[in-house]
Amino acid sequence: MESLSPFVFWSQTKQALLLKVDLKDAKGAIADFSPVAVNFSANGHGARGMNAYKFQLHFYSLIDDENATFVVSDNKIELQIRKLEPEWWPRLVATPQKPHWLKIDFDRWRTEDDAELEEKPRDVRQDYQQEYADLQKRELGYIKEKTKKVYMIFYNLAMFIGYLYIVTVMGVLYYRDGAESIAKTYANVGNAFKFVQLLQYLEVMHPLFGYTKGSPLVPFFQVSGRNFVLFLMIEMEPRMYTKPVVFYVFIIWSLVELVRYPFYLSQLLGREVGLLTWLRYTIWIPLYPMGILCEGIIVLRNIPYIEETKRFCVDMPNRWNITFDMVLFLKIYLLLLILPGSYLVMSHMAKLRAKKLGRGRGKRRQHLHAD
């Protein structure tokens, strides 16, 4: 079945691009930005009536994909994109041949006076990626993939299988034994959970070696926060093993990952799955608050145990001449987790959701102005 593309009208300033997608009453809009391209899909009323529309554009130069976003209104969708380097582009797309559905938005068009828009030297393999891949497949019988990409596919697949195993075991035992299985959760899947959680520290290394974008600090704090609860608050206190909250936090953590890793796989394989993208940037809305609540309960339940055992506490006198009160640390940790911690995590995910799924139906017409 031939895929339908909507009319797209584009304009630029020296710093930014604006793409206006001619779709009315659009639903389920998804825009996946990368430094060199955008993949867009939505259902709406376009040139071929009410249908599913999609398009892909490989840009002439690099964009700031981290801050690219889009706004859905009743009669159009606007993609707002910042150029990575402020400069005037001679065209929008990498190739000299533009798609027939791509038009200039003359109402917003701005040009630089006396600008000489000369083309830079270009890599033909990048400009014609699909054609190069088809040629490679015909010549070799397969498409050569980069080692990094192959590794990331296997890593995400392995992590998905790990969390799927945990949820499957918990589900089967609950179906067989009912509520009695809840107290045995840690005994049944604790070792498996510790294994996959330790493996997640590889995600701290990925941005360091250029396998993924972003800062290593974000995955470091996310993984370390979970492992603090798992190893110090549960593993080190046997009386926590049978608590129902362990069952609930394992379910919540696993459900998040059972969506996250398949989404990453789909991106690596170049397959945009609308439902999976929506789940990736929506399922956190109920699960993150519940996860923070469960983690807080686990920390709170540990306070009387640590007061009793003095575990992790350092009292005077000692050879280092220092003191450390683990109970006070946990109380401060709870305050940081509930107030600034939850706000930072939720606002970060809300920003990502707005970037991928749009900021809703804007009623004001937004313009780009030349400097």
List the helices and strands and how they pair.
Layout: E1 8-12, E2 16-21, E3 24-33, E4 37-46, E5 49-58, E6 69-72, E7 77-82, E8 102-104, H1 124-127, H2 129-140, H3 147-177, H4 185-199, H5 202-208, H6 217-235, H7 244-268, H8 274-280, H9 284-309, H10 326-357
Parallel strand pairs: 1-8
Antiparallel strand pairs: 1-2, 2-7, 3-4, 4-5, 6-7
Helix pairs in contact: 3-4, 3-7, 6-9, 7-8, 7-9, 9-10
Q: Mind explaining what this structure looks like?
A:
It is a single chain. By secondary structure, the chain is an alpha+beta fold. The chain folds into two domains: 8-116, Immunoglobulin-like (Sandwich), CATH 2.60.40; 144-311 and 319-347, no CATH class. It is 48% helix and 15% strand. The chain is built from ten helices and eight strands. The protein has helices spanning 124-127, 129-140, 147-177, 185-199, 202-208, 217-235, 244-268, 274-280, 284-309, 326-357; strands at residues 8-12, 16-21, 24-33, 37-46, 49-58, 69-72, 77-82, 102-104. A five-stranded mixed β-sheet has the order 6-7-2-1-8. The protein has a three-stranded antiparallel β-sheet with strand order 3-4-5. α3 packs antiparallel against α7 (244-268) and α9 packs antiparallel against α10 (326-357). The model is unreliable at 113-117 and 361-371 (pLDDT under 50).
